Amino acid sequence: MAQINENFIKIPATYLFSEIAKRVAQHKEENPTAPIIRMGIGDVSLPLPDASVDAMIKAADEQRSAETFRGYGPEQGYAFLREAIVINDFTNRGIDIAEDEIFVSDGAKSDTGNIGDIFDVNNRVAITDPSYPVYVDTNAMAGRAGEPTATGEWTNLVYLQCNSENNFVPALPTEKVDLVYLCYPNNPTGTTLTKEQLTVWVEYAKANNVILLFDAAYEAFITEEDVPHSIYEIEGAKDVAIEFRSFSKTAGFTGTRCGYTVVPKQLMGNTANGEKVSLNKLWNRRQCTKFNGTSYIVQRAAEATYSPEGKKQVKALIDFYTENARIIREGLTKAGYTIFGGVNAPYVWAKAPVGMGSWEYFDFLLKEKNIVTTPGAGFGASGEGYVRFSAFGSRENTIEAMKRLEK
Ligand SMILES: *Cc1c(COP(=O)(O)O)cnc(C)c1O
């Protein structure tokens, strides 16, 4: 009989989104005409930039003729896209990254999940809390998280609390860890780290032989000067960090699927004997074995986001969501709520009124205001007592929701 990977059955069912759906459905049943506004979504609502759609049509058309048809492409991504990434996301920001340090993929969820393949099961992993659930669950699947406890936390993970008391700046781990997941600008809190605060992490990683797994999926939403767009803006980061990027939130590619991972050639891991091994080589090996590349058509769409028109169109998308976030911040503040984030990210993290938990606050907003949010507790124990408002909705709904809250 084939025995399963029992780590999978240790993982509690992710009831967050099904529980939200259940409560919304019940509210609808009791109030069939309730004008519900959904601010819980982590998906974009605006369509793709025209430049990307045009590029896909052209690329699709090329597939009709033998001269321009493309079969298997390079596993690491086509040179045209890796080149555009290097120039626009790194060289233009004064960061020295080479094309063979870029690995194009079908998105940052796959990459942040798959990166664990190149690390031993006995590494100690630290995760900021609350966090994007992929980091926790993929480590659990690999057997790196230990056992789940009654509170939903895992025995072998180190949780770095982020809350209003520390202004969402995680403290350095007090015990020995090997890998640390950082996501800035952050999902779900919408907060971020300044250059100085991120420098503390890079220096810590260097001094303690730690690898940082830096998820920069929301980089395009940064509006403030002193917030790094890439961890490689910090001196020495190429020795300690892997960075994940995505076209999903930046350019509306949530359904189109494209992202990339940066693994610097100088970044090393250790064997059990203490020999140093290039992580770039290991990741390349992993990708070439398990991945056959992102579709040519999609890579052309991603390339087009870096064209002059593409850049303008992407900026318009980001500006639209950023304005929504501003409206949410202003509305919640006027309504007397304590809020965080939303300046460099499309999420606003709101503190529940005193004495209310995440789900109570969620129910209050649903039943009294017909607004759907995401309970913070769904992202980890430190998310208890908060809800997440998303800025990815329409302008009309965003304004209407804030009007309801002000009343
Ligand atoms: C949305 C998101 C991603 C991007 O995932 P894709 O697979 O590229 O769509 C990555 N990390 C975080 C934290 C996210 O919220």
UniProtKB/TrEMBL annotation:
Residue sites binding pyridoxal 5'-phosphate per the record: Y72, A108, K109, Y132, N187, Y218, S246, F247, S248, R257, N292
Reactions catalysed according to its record: (2S,6S)-2,6-diaminopimelate + 2-oxoglutarate = (S)-2,3,4,5-tetrahydrodipicolinate + L-glutamate + H2O + H(+)
Residues binding substrate: Y15, G42, K109, Y132, N187, N292, R388
Segments forming domain Aminotransferase class I/classII large: 36-405
Pfam families for the chain: Aminotran_1_2 (PF00155)
GO molecular function, one term: L,L-diaminopimelate aminotransferase activity
Enzyme class: transferase
Domain of life: Bacteria
Cofactor: pyridoxal 5'-phosphate
Annotated EC: 2.6.1.83
Quaternary state and interactors: Homodimer.
Function as written in the Swiss-Prot or TrEMBL entry: Involved in the synthesis of meso-diaminopimelate (m-DAP or DL-DAP), required for both lysine and peptidoglycan biosynthesis. Catalyzes the direct conversion of tetrahydrodipicolinate to LL-diaminopimelate.
Designated name of the protein: LL-diaminopimelate aminotransferase
This protein's encoding gene: dapL
